[in-house]
Fold this sequence. Notes:
The protein is α+β, with helices and mostly antiparallel strands. It is built from 2 helices and 4 strands, in the order αββββα. Strand 1 (about 25-30) and strand 2 (about 35) form a beta hairpin.
Amino acid sequence: MNIIETLIILGIFSVIGSITKKNGPQTYYYENRIVAVYDKYQCPKYCEVDHHHYVYYDSTLSGMYIDKSKLGKKYDQKVEKIKRK
């Protein structure tokens, strides 16, 4: 494999990664915790796992949901790691 093919493959992976990041769960501050807003999966209401819970806006679902108007700023894991240092 030559350098051009390698660069093309790296470019394709970069595009796929950025699309996945944009379309995947988005983490936000919400009240006193961090939640992952995601329309394909929501944690059940009784979820006791210590993680950013997956939520959605629609209260008709059986999983966790939130009030969109109370959603805080977007959570950036990279910034949080820098703040902790």
